[in-house]
Design goal:
single chain, mainly alpha, Amino acid/polyamine transporter I, 14 helices
């Protein structure tokens, strides 16, 4: 999940920006989600999450047109709920990107382990990822070199397409038994526990949780009235990509699919795939450290001469913000060294809060006070739908967080499970 700030973009540029925010770390966990749920329930759940988040993304555009002064999700919270709403959603916004940065650092450590054949302690690789992310994110002109983010997007897509092709032509997935005839044990319908199912759905939420970035994207459009057109094209393309990659990789790998999915093919292909993916993972981590760092930096120095000056206070505050964000993300990546568990935790705890509840409240805020003559059956349906989005988001947030935490704890207890600040190779997880 990534954000690129574009100045006055057209609707085609907006499509590209939206797809960039959606296709990121989340896609790497989708085949494992299908392994938990089965192909048919997995596709149904994915399409359901896609439908809800597409509506949420649509409401972002409508709310922006109705309230031009709203730039970010914190502004929307302030308009609806006052200072408390602004601060809560602002804090959630920062925490969300910090956790995504943590998952990015973890992904980088997995990639470095893969390409180097576990050439160093994993804890060292996570630290390296944090240092690199902090160094690049501290470039204040990051918004002017957005071509790096496009390179990152192409690298992620190339990596996931490569592994998709590789599992189709390989004799068997890397983790499968080496002897005998291999037949994929994929399941049309699986029978997961509640914890497994809710954690899997939370991972799908994470894959679509680019919604908070859409506030900034629509704010930079040349003509915001074309936002909906761009959104439909984006969400259609993203959903088709997710379904195709998830189904193909899971069909050929079955229960031996890896999480992240790039480790599903043989050792050589794993090196190739992670070699492609590493630049994308680094760019993702850089951007999502920069975003909350810039948000906090502006909040701290807003209204002072130091915001735009070249003073010691200016640079000390800026570097303090980016280093603090990087340090917290590093702690998260080291303390929760399970990629699938961390992704589902982010999706449940913060992805839903950024993509479900606020958008239901935004529709209600703009439409609840309609006079009784305008309260048509469609209005009643939309009230029920908005309440459902808020309620379902709250359920997923509570249930998914519980399921993710239980899953992470279980992974620590499992044989070969990675421990916090471990030196163990984390590129062989399945």
């Amino acid at each position: 999940m990534d954000l690129i700030i574009a100045m006055c973009v057209g609707w085609l540029g907006t499509v590209a920006l939206m797809m960039k925010t959606q296709i990121g770390l989340g896609v790497l966990s989708i085949p494992a989600v299908f392994n938990v749920l089965g192909i048919v329930p997995g596709v149904i759940c994915l399409c359901t999450v896609a439908a809800i988040t597409t509506w949420s993304d649509y409401i972002v555009g409508i709310f922006k047109l109705n309230h031009p002064n709203v730039y970010g999700i914190d502004d929307a919270g302030g308009l609806m709920f006052g200072r408390i709403g602004r601060e809560l959603l602002g804090i959630a916004f920062c925490l969300y990107w910090i956790f995504v940065a943590g998952s990015g650092m973890l992904g980088i450590s997995i990639g470095l382990n893969a390409v180097s054949t576990h050439g160093a302690c994993t804890a060292v690789f996570v630290a390296v990822a944090a240092i690199v992310g902090f160094s690049l994110a501290s470039i204040q002109t990051l918004g002017r070199i957005t071509w790096l983010a496009w390179i990152g997007l192409m690298c992620i897509i190339t990596a996931i397409l490569t592994v998709t092709i590789a599992v189709g032509v390989e004799d068997r997935p890397h983790a499968a038994p080496k002897d005998g005839v291999w037949v994929s044990d994929y399941k049309i319908v699986n029978n997961p526990t509640f914890v497994e199912a809710i954690s899997a759905v939370s991972s799908l939420v994470f894959a679509y949780a680019g919604t908070p970035a859409f506030f900034s994207i629509v704010s930079e459009m040349r003509d915001p009235r074309h936002y909906t057109r761009s959104l439909i094209i984006c969400q259609t393309g993203v959903t088709v990509t997710y379904i195709a990659i998830g189904c193909v990789v899971y069909y050929f790998c079955g229960s031996y699919v890896a999480s992240p999915a790039l480790g599903s093919a043989g050792v050589t292909m794993k090196k190739v795939c992670y070699g492609f993916a590493l630049p994308g993972l680094i760019v993702t981590t850089t951007l999502v450290i920069h975003l909350p760092g810039k948000y906090i930096f502006i909040r701290l120095l807003r209204g002072t001469k130091h915001l735009s000056s070249n003073s010691l206070i200016h640079w000390g505050t800026w570097l303090g913000c980016t280093s603090s964000i990087a340090m917290i993300a590093y702690i998260i990546a080291s303390a929760v060294p399970v990629f699938g568990g961390l992704v589902s935790l982010i999706g449940a705890f913060l992805g839903t809060l950024m993509s479900f509840q606020p958008m239901g409240c935004m529709w209600l805020y703009d439409n609840w006070t309609k006079d009784k003559s305008k309260r048509t059956p469609w209005w009643t349906f939309m009230v029920c739908w908005s309440v459902f989005v808020v309620a379902s988001g709250t359920f997923l947030m509570i249930g998914g967080t519980y399921g993710s935490v239980v899953g992470i704890i279980d992974s620590y207890k499992a044989a070969g499970g990675s421990a916090a600040w471990s030196c163990a190779d984390n590129s062989n997880s399945v």
